[in-house]
Amino acid sequence: MAASRRPSAVPPMLRHLKARPGGPDDAEEEWIVTALARWCYRHRLVVLVLWVGALFGLGAAGTSAGTDYSNVFSLPDTDSKRAYDLMTKAFPESAGDTDTVVWRVDEGASARDEGVRSRIEPALKEIAGMKGVGEVQGPYASKQAGAAQISGNGRIAYAQVTFAEEANSVPKDLVQDVVDTAQRAERSGLQVELGGQAITRIQEPPTGVAEMVGIAAAAVVLFLAFGSLFAMVLPIVIAVFGVGLGMLSTMLLSHVTDIPEVAPLLGSLIGLGVGIDYALFIVTRHRRGILRGMEPEESAVHALNTSGRAVLFAGGTVCIALAGMLVMNMRFLDGVVIAASLTVVLSVLAAVTLLPSLLGLLGSRVLSRRQRRRLAAEGPEPAEASGLAARWSSYVQKRPRSIAALAFVVMAFLALPLLSLRLGATDQGNHQESTTTRQAYDMLADGFGPGFNGPLQVVAEKADTGGLVTAIRETEGVARVAAAPPADGISVINVVPTTSPQSEETDQLIDRLRGDVIPEAGVDAHVGGVTAVFKDFAAVTGDRLPYFVGAIIGLGFLLLLIAFRSLVVPLMAALMNLIAAAASFGVLVAVFQWGWGTEILGVGKEGPITAFLPVIMLSLLFGLSMDYQVFLVSRMHEEWVHTKDNARAVRVGLAETSRVINCAALIMICVFSAFVLSGDMEGAMAGIGLAAAVALDAFILRTALVPAAMHLLGRSNWWLPAGLEKRLPHLAVEPREAPEETAPVPHARVREPDGEGGASVVHGFIRTAEGEPVEGAVLTLLSKGGRQLDRVTSLADGSYIVAAPSAGAYLLAVTAPGYAARARHIAVAGEPLVYDVELAVGEMDAVN
């Protein structure tokens, strides 16, 4: 009989025979988690009432207080910010939102015709008399002033409607009345459209449409995964509570700090994804515990003490990744951090408190009827992984090089469009062609030039700007220049470029004005306007993005280094995060910047990628990737500690986690993709980008590239210098399969030690000479005097575990049908002993 000894390790099933590596602090943490889960399970009605009361209470407060979102895109120490400050000082009354009514007549007619004027003027007069409208400036009031509001060919004209409040504060009913009144003036040969921020608000789908579609899609996936209506509802309820409380809290916080309008949308996007996924992990563990013979309460407690602890860790990493946006030092992103982090925290809190109370209400009904009948008839199911996931895991082990190469080529191909990434801002020119704002935008561009929709303002303080106006007028790329009368010593020169706000030529014009024209004129002036603000925002984002990426990648490396005691695992995770980000941004560029399918998806016209989107997407992608990495590698790490067999560790880890990871990813893809329906270009970009990132991360990286690379690296995956091991703190992330330490173990029986202290175990694998596992082999542990101490049978993978009452010398006997019996003297110390046995057919053996 051949046998081998490997360094001892603690089998996960028998950690109760040995002190936990985390020491007293880890035991205390486990006791707290267990006690909280048990309390919530037993006091389920109290917990449920508290959560429902919080939701309705915040709902009432949020409804009465309303919202006060503020889009602060300007940045300190930028030229556009200095121009904005000077204009605010000179024109403080221009705080209200200004929108535009545009009309066009057919070829051969003119906007000056009496028939056109007789229809438009009464409509403009009626709009001017509405409560909440400050003033209306049309082209017919004064020939001299209004001439500029009629195009050169006379076919297109516009009027400016200034509301008394900013766009977000203008009542939607008032905006709708303005639109209806203006469009009633239409007739055959006269088209009327409206543009502006206030007009955009009434085109948005009803609030919650994207969320409801995402939830419906997630419900279908959950029902297919669980086969149980009750189990399907649980993750959705948790996500609804977490996102609902998060959005209501964000509404209230908007009154005390700057929260951008896109923040609650992004918060609900990430909140729905993580809320459903975290609940899915816990419910899956709970159902597995019941199927393996545990009582519902004990199963729920163990699910919270294992998957729940992983959820706490994963939620913490998402919040830390979101907080990484603070490195950018942008006020606009600070509000996004607050909204998204608050929603994630509340989703995690719902998963670890509200979910166990709901599990208590359902009891065993969390299983389907068929599962309950089978459990009653056949008893607990075995613990071995099987099915498609196990077969794919074995396939990856057999062909790691080809799978790794194919996965890398696919990711590299998808990342190629990233080379043409251009950051900027979306505007109404990117809206769908059917919208009135897009029609108004195109009409103004057709009648007054592409640059009319994004004019620049050159602002100077206490200076003679006559020479500057002349110099700007002669500058390449300038269509029109108009100087406004000075106010409080501040002069404003309106500059209309010849190109659209999103074109690279307009960016070059801004650089030309700042770098050449203004310095040569000898005037201290600054270039502002919405187009210049977004250009500066994109430039600052690009400059600071490497520091942000370095911060979140470094933080992820440190967390995984501490959690898994390995240098290679966190290095691989950092590399995979970068690959996933590159490929997902490649998809984003192809869809939104190149326009591959934008009209089919219903997201409007192609344009640059919104400047702040890379920061938000990288934060969310980093957090979600960390979730999947933790759930996947923690199971591999557990098996590695058990067997010191890297191939087995990677194979078992992938087989037992890939299904739940892929299911979770599919849910997130559904939720994120649904945000195409949000009516918001930034929300659609984030939804498509994150859906692509999650799909690539889960289905290619975590399912193929990561395990294939770990097979190729072998034992190097788990290498850590001894000196570093001693200095690193311990961070306990409970492995996904840890409940087996108390769950029933099929075929393997562990006897309580009957000796004085020093209890330990012997574990390993029974294999043939060809390396094939032997199932059903009987192993007997005997004392020196021949007394039987423990007796077990090997599992399907050939593994076994026997318990030794104390350190000392024993006899291990092995018998299996078709194989010669084996026996060996073994010496057991205080640590577990890893001992593999090789059986041969028809061979005689003697006790050694």
Automatic annotation (TrEMBL):
One Pfam annotation reads CarboxypepD_reg
- Enumerate the subcellular locations listed in this protein's record, separating them with semicolons: Cell membrane
On whether Membrane is a keyword of this UniProt record, the answer is: yes
Q: Which UniProt keywords apply?
A: Cell membrane, Membrane, Transmembrane, Transmembrane helix
The UniProt annotation puts the region (Disordered) at 1-25, 736-758
Q: Which family does it belong to?
A: Belongs to the resistance-nodulation-cell division (RND) (TC 2.A.6) family. MmpL subfamily.
Report the protein name in the record.
MMPL family transporter
Q: Which organism is it from?
A: Streptomyces rectiviolaceus
High-level lineage: Bacteria, Bacillati, Actinomycetota, Actinomycetes, Kitasatosporales
